[in-house]
Each structure stands twice: as C-alpha cells, then as structure tokens.
Amino acid sequence: MTNHIVLFEPLMPANTGNIARTCAGTNSVLHLIKPLGFEINDKTVQRAGLDYWDKVEIRYHENLPEFLKTVPNIQRLFVVSKFASKAYSEENYVSEEDNYFLFGKETTGLPEPFMRQYAENAIRIPQNDQNIRALNLSNTVALIVYEALRQQDFPGLDKSHLYENDKLK
Predict the structure, then answer these.
(1) The pairing of beta strand 58-61 with beta strand 77-80
(2) If we measure between CA atoms, which residue out of 15, 54, 44, 48 comes closest to residue 32?
(3) pLDDT at residue number 47
(4) Which backbone phi and psi does 49 adopt, to 5 degrees?
(5) Going from the N-terminus, what domains does the chain have, and what CATH number goes with each?
(6) pTM score, whole prediction
(7) Highest mean pLDDT pick, 9-18, 46-55, 64-73
(8) Known binding residues for S-adenosyl-L-methionine
(9) Sequence-ordered list of residues with C-beta below 8 angstroms from that of 116, at least 6 positions apart, any chain
(10) Contact (CB, 8 A) for 135 and 103
C-alpha cells in the first residue's frame, strides 16, 4: 500500500517544496494537478525541497478529471476540506489498496461541485475558524500523511534509530 499526496492547482512554491520533502521522507507519491502557479524548477520550489527532488515520485495531471481516471478505487480517495463533517482521525487508512489524499488550492480549495459530489470522502482537521481562515497546506499534508502512517505502523520507515541511537538520557 502506498499513500499518495495530491495537490490541486497548487499556487505557492514553498508549500509544494515542503510537501515534496515530506513525500520523500514518507515514501509517498506526489501528484500535481495543473495548472501550477509556478514553474517546478522555480528557485523557491527547489530550495524548499532542498536536495530531495530526485527521491520523490512526482506524477503530473492536466486537470482534475484526468487525475480521477488514475484512482483505482474512488473509496480510497480522501478529499481534505475544512468544510468536511468527519475529522481525519476518524477515518481508517489501513487497507490493501493505496490511499489518495486530495488537497485543494491554497486560496480557494477544491471546486464546490466536486466537493458536493465527493462529500462522503471528505475529511478535515479540526481548527478554530474564528482566528484563522485555514491551516498551512504543507502542515496539513504532514498531519494527515503521518496519521495514515501511524495507523499503518509506519511501513517502510526506519524506526530503529528512535530506540537505539537517539535515546533521551
């Protein structure tokens, strides 16, 4: 099973670079749905991802319908939105099939008709809407992918150093 991080029309190069680094560290596949608000070779994107770009599997999609054609089981597509009724921690991410986590554009999220169609697949991170509009996209991706990995017992990730070399004294 693989976790897939899907960004719909990302606008901010630093967010995408940080998310690419998270994908490299978690063996997650990164999907970018066009149009992008930057060039992938932009210095800001490259700097945020540092030297991890060659360690990330990136798949590009021309638009949302084209991306959806690549999802083998639409039930494993988790649409992340602050308007969802189900918290991300209420979902079960342990499956024989791959998980796809779809995140909207930083400024406008996902298209409303799409959100209505996939409301059953929607998850959210609880937050205080009185103080902020939304959490940072790269932070949101990290929270959700690590919850999925925690439930999956961190497959393919080296945990031994946590117990042997880096013990707190």
Answers:
(1) unpaired
(2) 15
(3) 67
(4) -85, -5
(5) 3-163 (3.40.1280.10)
(6) 0.90
(7) 64-73
(8) 80, 104, 125
(9) none
(10) no
pLDDT for 46: 64
The C-alpha atoms of residue 76 and residue 73 are separated, in whole angstroms, by 6
121-134 burial string, b = 16+ CB within 10 Å, else e? bbbbbeeeeeeeee
> Can you give the pLDDT at residue 61?
98
**Length of the chain, in residues:** 169
* Sign of CA pseudo-dihedral 158, 163, 168, 169: negative
**Per the structure block, which two tokens stand in for 70?**
């690549």
Residues at the annotated binding site? Answer: 80, 104, 125
Confidence at residue 41, expressed as pLDDT on a 0 to 100 scale? 73
**pLDDT score of 129:** 73
Amino acid identity, position 26: T
Residue 10 to residues 76, 111, 126, 138, Cα–Cα distance (Å): 22, 13, 22, 11
More confident residue, 43 or 34: 34
